């Protein structure tokens, strides 16, 4: 069989299937809906079984760990950026008092919260040859 004949046969089969669906819908719509719901339910059950057996627990735990770390990072940087904003000064007394030099939070020492960093062991005894650079 060549491709053209195969494609024409497939179009005929699709047309007959659509004709059968429409005639079933016109003759008995309630039965058509019941079959459709049953078909959808069977597909849902098959999908749930597929997801249950194909997704390993390690990929789930890795994904959950990534999600927790992302939330922690967002929370960490949003609280810092909110503390760096200057408060709004509304009255004139406060404006005159604000002329004094105030230490900004940008000049404060950063806290060393590097719990997310890990040390990778490497070749510590090997020195770089700086003469070749």
Short recap of the structure:
The protein is mostly helical and 133 residues long. 64% of the residues lie in helices and 0% in strands.
Instruction: Tell me the number of strands.
Output: 0
Runs with pLDDT <50, length 5+? none
Helix content: 55-70%
Give average pLDDT, whole number.
Answer: 76
End-to-end Cα distance, whole Å, is 69 Å
Shape: elongated
Q: How many H/I helices?
A: 4
Helix and strand content put the structural class at mainly alpha
H/E element order: HHHH
Main sheet specs:
none
Compute the gyration radius: what is it?
34 Å
Indicate the proportion of strand residues: under 5%
Jot down its keywords.
mainly alpha; 133 residues; elongated
Architecture overview:
With 133 residues, this protein is an all-alpha fold. Helix content is 64%, strand content 0%. It has four helices and no strands. The mean pLDDT is 76. Keywords: Membrane, Transmembrane, Transmembrane helix.
Topology at a glance:
Elements lengths: L2 H25 L1 H26 L2 H28 L7 H6 L36
């Amino acid at each position: 069989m060549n491709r053209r004949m195969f494609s024409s046969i497939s179009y005929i089969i699709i047309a007959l299937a659509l004709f059968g669906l429409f005639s079933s819908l016109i003759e008995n719509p309630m039965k058509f809906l019941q079959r459709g719901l049953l078909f959808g339910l069977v597909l849902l059950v098959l999908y749930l079984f597929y997801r249950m057996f194909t997704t390993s627990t390690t990929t789930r735990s890795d994904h959950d760990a990534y999600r927790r770390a992302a939330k922690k990072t967002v929370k960490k940087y949003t609280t810092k950026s909110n503390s760096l904003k200057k408060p709004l000064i509304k009255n004139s007394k406060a404006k005159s008092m604000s002329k004094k030099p105030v230490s900004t939070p940008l000049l404060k020492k950063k806290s060393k919260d590097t719990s997310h960093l890990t040390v990778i062991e490497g070749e510590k005894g090997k020195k770089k040859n700086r003469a070749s650079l």
